[in-house]
């Protein structure tokens, strides 16, 4: 298998690709992540993953014909999309909303070569036990939650509050590895 471009600035996504031994070069892109009016969470993450992949494919820093892989992760409470908190107060508000209930983590992955794109969506259900305000404030004393959808990282200290997950651990972390493997295998078969 050839190497791929990873259209992402997320250190978690790079770490996850390394975990399954995929050769990659990072090619982060910057796109507008504003949701469209009445856009469903599923449509939103898939659209962003595809836009990130296309932006990287069209980037002049790309010198090899390798496939481009991009992903987007959002935390969803009902129909509310929780992205990355802009500041500590927003993070605390998100944690109060997440406390004592389940939410969904959607991660869309897109593999792109030119106009050919393949996308897939991973949906996981994550349950936080009830959190006291003291626990929420203690978490937000640290720097962990800012660059993460929903303001938490399952791979960090937030794990102590997560009592159930139904879905893909790597998907919650930002890159569902079974989906990546499947997309790459389909690609190799074409
Ligand atoms: C829910 C959750 C999210 N995250 C992270 C994964 C993503 O980096 C981030 C979601 O934001 P994204 O916008 O999907 O990704 P990003 O801006 O970090 O990187 P890029 O667009 O360049 O690919 O949240 C965790 O690390 N752990 C978690 O448990």
UniProtKB/TrEMBL annotation:
Biological process according to GO: nucleotide metabolic process
A Pfam family the protein falls into: Maf
GO cellular component: cytoplasm
List of catalytic residues: 72 (proton acceptor)
Annotated compartments: Cytoplasm
Cofactor annotation: a divalent metal cation
InterPro entries listed in its UniProt record: ITPase-like_fam, Maf-like
Catalysis performed (reactions): UTP + H2O = UMP + diphosphate + H(+); dTTP + H2O = dTMP + diphosphate + H(+)
A molecular-function term among this protein's GO annotations: UTP diphosphatase activity
Enzyme Commission number(s): 3.6.1.9
Site residues, Important for substrate specificity: 12, 73, 155
Sorted UniProt keywords: Cytoplasm, Hydrolase, Nucleotide metabolism
Major localisation: cytoplasm
Protein family according to the UniProt entry: Belongs to the Maf family. YhdE subfamily.
Function of the protein: Nucleoside triphosphate pyrophosphatase that hydrolyzes dTTP and UTP. May have a dual role in cell division arrest and in preventing the incorporation of modified nucleotides into cellular nucleic acids.
HAMAP family: Maf (MF_00528)
Protein name according to UniProt: dTTP/UTP pyrophosphatase
């Amino acid at each position: 298998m050839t190497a791929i471009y990873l259209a992402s600035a997320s250190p978690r996504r790079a770490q996850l690709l390394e975990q399954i031994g995929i050769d990659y070069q990072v090619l982060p892109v910057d796109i507008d992540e504003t949701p469209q009016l009445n856009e469903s969470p599923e449509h939103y993450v898939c659209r962003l993953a595809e836009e990130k992949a296309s932006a990287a494919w069209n980037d002049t820093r790309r010198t090899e014909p390798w496939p481009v892989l991009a992903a987007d992760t959002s935390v969803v409470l009902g129909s509310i999309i929780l992205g990355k908190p802009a500041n500590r107060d927003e993070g605390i508000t998100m944690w109060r909303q997440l406390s004592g209930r389940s939410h969904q983590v959607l991660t869309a992955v897109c593999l792109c070569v030119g106009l050919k794109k393949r996308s897939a969506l991973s949906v996981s259900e994550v349950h936080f036990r009830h959190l006291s305000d003291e626990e929420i404030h203690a978490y937000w004393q640290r720097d962990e939650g800012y660059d993460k959808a929903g303001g938490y990282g399952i791979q960090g200290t937030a794990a102590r509050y997560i009592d159930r997950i139904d879905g893909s651990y790597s998907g919650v972390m930002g890159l569902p590895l079974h989906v990546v493997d499947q997309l790459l295998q389909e690609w190799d078969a074409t």
